[in-house]
Structures are given as C-alpha cells and as structure tokens.
Design goal:
By secondary structure, this protein is mainly β. The radius of gyration is 16 Å and the shape is elongated.
C-alpha cells in the first residue's frame, strides 16, 4: 500500500532538544529553524521510502556566534543513499569554505558501510 507524508514545521527552537542535550549546551543555543518534509513509500517496507527534508530557514546562534543560511538546504534520501544539497552557485562556495575538508561523513559518527554520505560542493 503506497503512502506519503508532506509536512512543514516553523519556528522550531532549541527547546525541542531538551532531554537530548546537556543543559549547558542547550543554554548556548538560540534561534529558530523552519523545515519541510516529504516522504513517499511504495509499500509498508520503510527501507523503500524516499524523500527529502529541507531547512527552509536556519537562523541560529551557537555560543553567541550566528549560524544562518542564504538558500534552503535539502537533505535527500533515496535507496540508502543520503546527500545534502543547496540551490545556488554562491551556496556551493560558502559550503566549501565552511566544510574545510570535513565533509563526507556524519558528524560525530563513523561512516556506515551501508549508507553513502556526500555533501555537494565539498
């Protein structure tokens, strides 16, 4: 049985991370994020699901330093392949300078042999 989910969430604050992050770390975060989620699956087997999560607005402060984006960032999932991309030529240059060679593996985790990870522009 095919299924799909299309959702948006606006004004997400760091408070949603309460209980997952150390309270001192949470105190260093401020701001809001807006996201759009689209997921489709041809069956009840979730491993066959495809979709994307787009950060439509990212306006955060981490330890007093601003973290913003100029164009939406889109994370795509298709058949165990995950990638992140942005639209716009300037975004690729900004990401490349921000990545400084750290792209290609999930933050804080070792790359999985079953999941390819890449970030375009890095």
């Amino acid at each position: 049985m095919p299924a799909s989910v299309h959702a948006t969430a606006t004004g997400i604050t760091p408070a949603v991370l309460r209980g997952m992050l150390d309270p001192a770390t949470l105190e260093d975060l401020a701001g809001t994020v807006d996201v759009a989620l689209n997921v489709e699956t041809p069956s009840t087997d979730l491993s066959r699901a495809t979709g994307d999560l787009t950060l439509t607005r990212l306006d955060l402060q981490m330890a007093g330093l601003p973290v913003t984006q100029r164009v939406p960032t889109r994370f795509v999932s298709q058949r165990r392949f995950r990638r992140a991309s942005s639209r716009g030529a300037g975004a690729a240059r900004a990401r490349r300078s921000a990545c400084s060679g750290r792209c290609g593996s999930p933050i804080g985790r070792r790359p999985s042999s079953r999941m390819a990870t890449s970030i375009s522009g890095c």
